[in-house]
Design a protein that fits this description.
Layout lengths: L2 H5 L8 E2 L2 E2 L1 E2 L10 H14 L9 H21 L7 E4 L2 H16 L5 E5 L8 H10 L2 E5 L9 H7 L4 E7 L11 H10 L3 E5 L11 H4 L3 E5 L10 E5 L1 H4 L12 E4 L4 E3 L13 H17 L1 H19 L5 E3 L10 E6 L4 H9 L3 E2 L1 E3 L4 H6 L5 E5 L6 H18 L1
Helix pairs in contact: 2-10, 3-10, 4-5, 11-14
Bound molecules: pyridoxal-5'-phosphate (PLP).
The site of pyridoxal-5'-phosphate has 12 residues, from helix 4.
Length: 405
């Protein structure tokens, strides 16, 4: 693979920041966009912009076609059995809230258990807390071990028939841990528990096959996989989607409406009230085409090499504590703590050298408490990053040590 040529597909990366070549190491927050995605957005607005599903004119037909083709592409991208199992959302957060407010409200009762893990992003935690408050259900979590993996024995104790839903992150955005999603779904299924996989950090980084994973719901955000912001996917198994009530009411989700009552379309349209993010959906389809053009296995291998090299090189910095698995099996991000600088000071220092990183709790406050750190600095990679950029990061970490001590 010619990764240097692929990198040149991303116009934003070719710039100076604070007088240095930009080193973008914040892809776990949002990825950069290749030219083809940017062009798909401007092509849509320049040539095809129109509302979908509602008109018989040429532009609306083009927009509707592109929109529904995108649904097929998204289904293929994650291995769904049918495009009708693909609901377009604003992103991972909205997908989880949709499940909590529809399936959750319908199925959870006083005393039922919602099981999560100790490494969840707030968006896979707060919606379940709200659901628990509404229904009287109880929220429990699987503890995280010192090496950043889940406590396997605790899973046996906690994953019981009392659990109605097990919602867990595929790749942790704060540790880089890759959870064994297939095995976890199988264990849940064996006791009749519905599963939701938070794929915000895995989609676009590795091949995803929801049928092989055996999950009931899977959520992702387009902006973390080269697509635009404000668009994401909720996958739901049709047998579950069919039983779920709508969440948002409005246009496009109804069959008929009277003053007294309404009847609703089948999934996925039942869950897509109002004018959707048409441009976002078209941009997401362009991102899927782009990623599939490179090959998800190739991306996964390259991500893996970058993360391994980063852990190895960053370990040379005295006073560094790297969170999460120290082995090669990790996602493409490294979160760390330095005993000589607060994450915010370090991120500012790195920024003055052209490096973009993130410092803070990364929306995983319970996990920060678990590891007794106020926050961490996170360097996160994608296939457009290079080993030279990691070398540059290590140079700057050494410079920070000299500066802060
Ligand atoms: N889950 C994980 C693991 C994440 O990393 C993120 C975002 O950082 C989210 C959920 C929320 O994604 P979004 O803000 O795109 O809805």
């Amino acid at each position: 693979m010619d990764w240097h040529r692929i990198r040149s597909d991303f116009p934003i990366l070719d710039q100076q920041v604070q007088g240095h070549p930009l080193v973008y190491l914040d892809s776990a927050a949002t990825s950069q966009k290749p030219r083809t995605v940017i062009q798909a957005l401007s092509h849509y607005y320049e040539r095809d912009n129109s509302n979908v599903h509602r008109a018989l004119h040429e532009l609306s037909a083009r927009a509707t076609d592109a929109f529904e083709v995108a649904r097929k592409k998204a289904a293929h991208f994650i291995g769904a059995a049918s495009e009708n199992e693909i609901i377009f959302t604003r992103g991972t957060t909205e997908g989880i809230n949709l499940v909590a407010n529809t399936w959750g409200t319908q199925n959870l009762r006083q005393g039922d258990v919602i099981l999560v893990t100790g490494m969840e992003h707030h968006s896979n935690l707060v919606p379940w807390q709200l659901l628990a408050q509404r229904t009287g259900a109880v929220l429990k979590h699987i503890p995280v071990l010192d090496d950043g993996t889940l406590d396997n024995e605790a899973i046996d104790t906690l994953l019981t028939e009392q659990v109605k839903l097990f919602a867990f992150v595929h790749i942790s955005n704060s540790l880089g841990t890759i959870n064994p999603a297939r095995e976890l779904c199988a264990r849940a299924k064996a006791v009749g528990v519905v599963t939701l996989v938070d794929g915000a950090q895995s989609a676009g980084h590795m091949p995803i096959d929801v049928q092989d994973l055996g999950c009931d719901f899977f959520v992702l955000s387009g902006h973390k996989m080269c697509g635009p912001t404000g668009i994401g996917v909720l996958y739901g198994r049709m047998a579950l989607l069919e039983t779920m009530p709508p969440w948002h009411g409005g246009g496009e989700m109804i069959l008929s409406v009277s003053f007294e009552t309404s009847s609703y379309k089948p999934p996925p349209h039942r869950f897509e009230a109002g004018t959707p993010n048409i441009a976002g959906v078209i941009g997401l389809a362009a991102a899927i085409d782009y990623l599939e053009g490179i090959g998800l296995e190739n991306i996964q291998r390259h991500d893996h090499n970058l993360a391994n090299y980063a852990v190895q090189r960053m370990s040379e910095v005295p006073g560094i504590r790297i969170l999460g698995p120290q082995s090669g099996h990790r996602g493409s991000l490294v979160a760390f703590h330095l005993d000589f600088a607060h994450p915010h000071d370090l991120v500012e220092f790195a920024n003055s050298h052209g490096i973009a990183m993130r410092g803070g709790h990364h929306c995983t406050q319970p996990l920060m408490k678990r590891f007794k750190v106020p926050g961490t600095t996170r360097a996160s990679f994608y296939f457009y990053n290079t080993l030279e950029e990691i070398n540059r990061l290590v140079e700057v970490l050494f410079a920070a040590r000299a500066f802060f001590t």
